[in-house]
Amino acid sequence: MSKFSDYLRLVKFSHTIFAMPFALLSFTYAWLRADHSANIYLLIAQVVGCMVFARNVAMGFNRWADRDIDAENPRTRDREIPAGKISARGAMWFVVVNGVLFITLAALINPLCGWLSPVALAIVMFYSYCKRFTSLAHLVLGLSLGIAPVGAYMAVTGTSAWECWLLALIVMTWCSGFDIIYSLQDADFDRERGLHSIPAALGTRGALVVSGVLHTLSIGLLVIFAAYQPQTWLLYVGCTLFSLILASEHYIVTPNKQRNIGIAFGTFNALASVSLALFLILNLIICG
Asked: Are 130 and 136 in contact (CB under 8 A)?
């Protein structure tokens, strides 16, 4: 049981809450427009399973790839691999097993998901090496998480639509923005080790400006998405809460006030994702 808990901590399983609600929102949107011959409960279980397995690959590979860097960083040296709780070999086997499970489950959903599953894994694994050569690694992380709503839509319909791609852009800009905030903690370490990030390149103030621009863009894209949804109070409440929570992140984290980074990253973003998806899913279901 202790080893199981170590692996849950290795992949920060609780952070699944960031992209999962958007996948379920996209799933609902697709389901209400598609042929209902499939078993919805089985399909939901398959989509959730794919999300979990893909994220396990992404986080497990990231921890494996960064194990030497994490060992040198005071903030991360207690992570499971540098702390000796999980071996590098064990972490890689974890990645391989989850990768096989992801591809297998995706192929069982439909042929398109099966063929594209290795591409999705390549993207989420590529992120782990980006900070070694580009400050735009945050955008690659956003892209990795933005795959979720597209994959969920394809799982239901076997195709894609502009709505799921717009949701992907909302997720990408939102997650890239909050990853920049989170990376403020390692700006000095990254500069010393020659690693790349927007905080390391632009400093705290410049990084927060870029993060704010990305979050503003995310809200703007959400407004466009909302314009094509059933117009009810549920839609307005969901979009307003998401926007206010993102704005609040930039109120509690400033160049002179960084102690709240953990709250902004974990609590605020989880609330933003869940509240938006909950209200928009209810809006879709009630309006048919």
From this structure: yes
Tokens 């209400």 found at: 32
**pLDDT of amino acid 13:** 75
In terms of phi and psi (left: phi > 0; alpha: psi -120 to 50; beta: otherwise), the region of 85 is: alpha
Q: What is the pLDDT of residues 235-256, one digit of tens each?
A: 999 999 999 999 999 999 999 8
Identify the structural domains of the chain with CATH numbers, from first to last. 2-287 (1.10.357.140)
Structure tokens at 122: 């390549």
Tokens read off for 48? 């959730």
How many other CB atoms are found less than 10 A from the CB of residue 67? 18
Closest CA to 166 of 104, 206, 226: 226
Three-state secondary structure call for residue 158? coil
Q: What span, in angstroms and rounded, lies between the C-alpha atoms of 201 and 173?
A: 19
- Name the pLDDT band for 1 (thresholds 50, 70, 90): low
The closest alpha carbon to 195, from 207, 204, 185, 186, belongs to 186
DSSP string covering 54-78: HHHHHHHHHHHHTHHHHHH-TTTTT
Hey, is 203 helix, strand or coil?
helix
Distance CA 130, CA 176 (A): 13
- Residue 257 has phi, psi (to 5 degrees) of -145, 85
Say what angle helices 233-252 and 269-287 make with each other, to 10 degrees.
170
User: What pLDDT digit, counting tens, does each position of 149-172 carry?
Assistant: 999 999 999 998 999 999 999 999
Q: How far apart are the C-alpha atoms of 168 and 146, rounded to whole Å?
A: 4
**DSSP character for 161?**
-
